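queue> pop job 88
queue> type: inverse folding (structure -> sequence)
queue> payload:
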């Protein structure tokens, strides 16, 4: 007896919402952190890379791929992307996010939005902006490290445990006075000290190491960094008078980087909780793409949506892991090298020149 014929059932496709034309700019910003023009700008950056080479009528468009990726970065929840009336299935969402992040994180794209000031004109402009904060002269950027929590990696797991005893990527970031990111390094495990990340970075080895920045312009960093002619740190035990005045102005000016990091993580909530993707190279792509998108938002004067305006379920908002309980044994910190005397002497001269009001 012949086997019964199998009848192929037609595939059912979910309707895909045309959010770019149906939602206002305000609604788009709530859900995707960019307005329509900004979303199209990002799409055009990678359109050729993410356009499907197929004639299928249901192929995911570049615009849809960017929307799905932005939704994930804004919320940190892949399930919100597939359940957001955009249409793609969960499997498609995962593939689309991977493809789009890879395209956006290419150096030729990132380099368009991270520009460190090296000309005299640009340095002067940055310094004027910073001096208006607390009267601290010659500052072109504030630098700090921030930890982005990740799931425990399968390889070299212990290296990713930071001093607060959770797994993370230690990200070095430099902000200007307008909270725009000038430089970002996102590739080091959480156990690596901020000073080592700086020492191995292009800022130290190329930008300042080769004298690309004019003399008299500096970064401000906390006491975890070595004091250099181009990197000024606070006094650990300041004397009353000029040193204390310097420390007060230094702290107020350096707060820019702390507030900037807060803005970045509030804008893209994927950085605020635990990033549950592997491998760690993909996590680093996420961090750099969020930083680039933050700068695009700054260029377009797009504000961070207020908490009550963010269109995502309250239960999906995770706590800041900086206050997480200690759960993993912390490896010992590496010995700290003595600070170069040259940088400390330069700082003393700088303080006497700019903060000694008796002269």
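queue> result:
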């Amino acid at each position: 007896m012949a086997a019964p014929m199998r009848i192929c059932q037609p595939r059912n496709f979910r309707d895909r919402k045309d959010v770019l034309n149906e939602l206002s700019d305000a609604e788009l910003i709530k859900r995707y952190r960019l307005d329509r023009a900004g979303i199209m700008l990002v799409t055009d950056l990678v359109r050729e890379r993410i356009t499907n080479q197929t004639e299928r009528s249901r192929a995911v468009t570049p615009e849809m791929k960017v929307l799905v990726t932005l939704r994930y970065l804004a919320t940190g929840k892949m399930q919100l992307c597939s359940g957001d009336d955009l249409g793609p299935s969960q499997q498609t969402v995962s593939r689309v996010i991977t493809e789009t992040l890879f395209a956006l994180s290419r150096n030729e794209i990132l380099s368009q939005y991270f520009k460190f000031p090296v000309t005299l004109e640009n340095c002067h402009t940055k310094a004027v902006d910073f001096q208006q904060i607390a009267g601290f002269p010659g500052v072109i950027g504030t630098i700090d490290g921030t930890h982005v929590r990740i799931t425990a990696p399968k390889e070299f797991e212990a290296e990713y445990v930071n001093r607060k005893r959770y797994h993370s990527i230690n990200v070095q970031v430099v902000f200007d006075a307008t909270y725009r990111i000038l430089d970002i390094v996102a590739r080091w495990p959480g156990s690596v000290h901020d000073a080592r990340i700086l020492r191995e970075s292009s800022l130290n080895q190329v930008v300042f190491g080769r004298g690309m920045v004019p003399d008299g312009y500096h970064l401000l960093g906390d006491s975890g960094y070595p004091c250099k002619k181009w990197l000024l740190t606070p006094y650990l035990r300041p004397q009353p008078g000029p040193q204390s005045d310097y420390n007060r102005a230094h702290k107020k000016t350096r707060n820019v980087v702390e507030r900037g990091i807060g803005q970045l993580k509030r804008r893209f909530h994927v950085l605020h909780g635990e990033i549950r993707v592997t491998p760690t190279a993909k996590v680093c792509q996420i961090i750099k793409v969020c930083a680039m998108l933050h700068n695009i938002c700054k260029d377009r004067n797009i504000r961070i949506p207020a908490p009550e305006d963010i269109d995502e379920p309250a239960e999906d908002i995770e706590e800041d892991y900086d206050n997480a309980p200690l759960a993993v044994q912390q490896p010992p910190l590496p010995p700290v090298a003595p600070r170069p005397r040259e940088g400390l002497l330069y700082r003393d001269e700088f303080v006497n020149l700019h903060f000694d009001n008796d002269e």
